[in-house]
């Protein structure tokens, strides 16, 4: 089987199973803590959390897992989504265009400002759809900070899993 097949994945797991279990546990525990603190009213934004947790704990040494990228990317996504939420939402095509603009603009700014974090594009989209509020801002900031702090605290024990 090729180097990206199931058997090679199982071999990597066998050789580093403790890391796989620890990092998956940290991803789940961090997500639980964040969900206990945040309101599920922000679910459309919190959905980006799962993808961020995957990057932070599955590929902890990638550029996109750095605190600058996680925090900066999600804050950029929030700002861009908030701005796009202010655009006209009628007719339907206008609202869809503002949602699409939020993703495109967030990607552009993250790349230009060297804060690439793909799940932050989902933050931009979620905020553009839901609208901005202090609660949403605190939700975005909280989950970005918690992920970054746990990542920093355990970095010496983490490894890229694939």
Based on the model shown, name its key terms.
0% strand; mainly alpha
Give an overview of the whole structure.
The protein has seven helices and no strands. By secondary structure, it is an all-alpha fold. The protein has one domain.
Summarize the topology.
Layout: H1 6-15, H2 17-37, H3 43-58, H4 67-85, H5 92-112, H6 119-130, H7 134-154
Helix pairs in contact: 2-3, 2-7, 3-6, 3-7, 4-5, 4-6, 4-7, 5-6
Short description:
The chain is mainly alpha-helical and 162 residues long. Helices cover 74% and strands 0% of the residues.
Number of domains: 1
Point out poorly predicted stretches: none
Inertia-based shape: elongated
Give the helix tally.
7
Cα Rg: 17 Å
Mean pLDDT: 91
The rounded distance between the terminal residues' Cα atoms is 16 Å
Structural class: mainly alpha
Beta-strand proportion: under 5%
Number of strands: 0
SSE order, as H and E?
HHHHHHH
Q: Describe the biggest sheet? A: none
What fraction, in percent, of the residue positions are helical?
over 70%
């Amino acid at each position: 089987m090729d180097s990206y097949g199931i058997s090679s994945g199982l071999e990597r797991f066998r050789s580093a199973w403790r890391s796989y279990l620890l990092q998956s546990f940290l991803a789940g525990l961090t997500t639980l803590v964040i969900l206990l603190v945040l309101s599920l009213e922000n679910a459309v934004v919190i959905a980006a959390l799962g993808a961020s947790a995957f990057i932070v704990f599955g590929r902890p040494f990638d550029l996109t897992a750095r605190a600058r990228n996680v925090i900066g990317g999600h804050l950029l996504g929030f700002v861009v989504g908030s701005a796009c939420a202010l655009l006209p939402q009628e007719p339907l095509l206008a609202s869809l265009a503002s949602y699409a603009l939020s993703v495109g603009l967030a990607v552009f700014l993250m790349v230009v400002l060297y804060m690439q974090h793909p799940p932050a594009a989902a933050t931009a989209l979620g905020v553009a759809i839901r609208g901005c509020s202090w609660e949403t801002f605190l939700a975005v900031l909280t989950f970005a900070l918690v992920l970054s702090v746990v990542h920093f605290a355990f970095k010496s024990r983490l490894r890229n899993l694939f």
